[in-house]
């Protein structure tokens, strides 16, 4: 099993919740704070972080696809 | 049962708990209605899961210009037609565009970079408090000045204007001001911020007003809009943080085991961060409901919310929803609480949340560590609560300590 991060950029309101819970997977763009995915294929020890990021994103801009 | 009036009064014996009707409706009537000041009866949504689903649903709107929008107060209803499109009254994609123009300074890394400065601000307020009279009022000594001093940094208010800025912003939000005083102070601040914006456009620095000035110059933002936005940031970030500092302290003083836990673990950033989330959940200071209007028919729990119907989301309902937070009436700094709705949910979720978090993390981890004997100077029943604002808080918090 692997986990892939899908990010729907137009939805992002740049609240930075993802950066707070998963700093290894997300950052914010300098100009406007819109999220950047640093790593869309987290390693298994990062799955919890990735799941939490998807859960806290207030704009439902982060989706995880299991493959 | 007749439609309950909203906002509802809390029970006097437990001022931290949401009104009993809110909790009953969360359990028994998830798609009920309330009656608001103008006699209209918007839907009343209190469950955590329902708020998550609806506040992100493109069929609901925050367009306060639309007939049927459940305004907070008569004053807000009367001013709504005169307010230009801003982040607080637009839907995506317009909202997304506007929000990205003001978001820069509120990014996690920009706010984290301010942490040492915020620590200095709070340390020097605690120094002053300890050097001053004992007992003292924590609202005036720490609660109100922290957000003012932080916001002056962020907006870029020059040091020599701090006193003016501090006096007037406290007056706009202090529960001790008369409505007239609050209005005059608000106007003085608006004029001040307008003039400062003009100055920053000529002579930019590293601050929010300069950033907005650059956007005004580039034609991405109107001048009026920028002044409105700066004032909104000031007000939205002021009363809320001030309330959280004072009320949080009171809640901890009432829960000495939790206060002791926080004091002992105040050098553990993870613990402190979670304690802040739990206090945000438990207190849910934005207690007059966030307001929306349906833009299409929506089915929910067997009823139809019709296109044009108003909807009120009571955030304290969701934050005390037993399904999401078992034993919700207990303040438990160790519970996972990050999924709370104290900052709202959906695209309008608080712009200043990262800043508020850092302010509160620094305040709570400093105050009780530096003043371990902090105690109420009056009986709990005599602490004056201020329940009438958008955010509830305290008019004063008399505290004492042993030297
Ligand atoms: C503990 C402190 C705070 C609490 C509890 C709080 C709560 C909230 C809530 C519930 C909303 C959502 C309103 C809605 O959806 O209708 C909101 C939005 C907002 N907050 Fe905060 N807030 C706090 C601090 C701040 C700070 C420090 C700032 C800025 C310096 C700020 C600026 C804003 C702005 C501009 C919005 C509108 C965002 C939008 O509509 O897109 N808030 N806040
Ligand atoms: S939490 Fe969601 S909305 Fe916020 S920055 Fe991350 S992706 Fe964007």
From TrEMBL, chain A:
Cofactors: [3Fe-4S] cluster
UniProt keywords, alphabetically: 3Fe-4S, Electron transport, Iron, Iron-sulfur, Metal-binding, Transport
Pfam families: Fer4_13
Coiled coil: none
Function: Ferredoxins are iron-sulfur proteins that transfer electrons in a wide variety of metabolic reactions.
PANTHER family: FERREDOXIN
Name listed for the protein in its UniProt record: Ferredoxin
Species of origin: Kineosporia mesophila
Organism placement in taxonomy: Bacteria, Bacillati, Actinomycetota, Actinomycetes, Kineosporiales
From TrEMBL, chain B:
InterPro entries noted in UniProt: Cyt_P450, Cyt_P450_B, Cyt_P450_CS, Cyt_P450_sf
Keyword Iron among record annotations: yes
Family matches, as Pfam families: p450 (PF00067)
Highest taxon, organism lineage: Bacteria
Gene3D superfamilies linked to this entry: Cytochrome P450
Keywords (A to Z) from UniProt: Heme, Iron, Metal-binding, Monooxygenase, Oxidoreductase
PANTHER family: CYTOCHROME P450 YJIB-RELATED, P450, PUTATIVE (EUROFUNG)-RELATED
Family note: Belongs to the cytochrome P450 family.
Protein name, UniProt field: Cytochrome P450
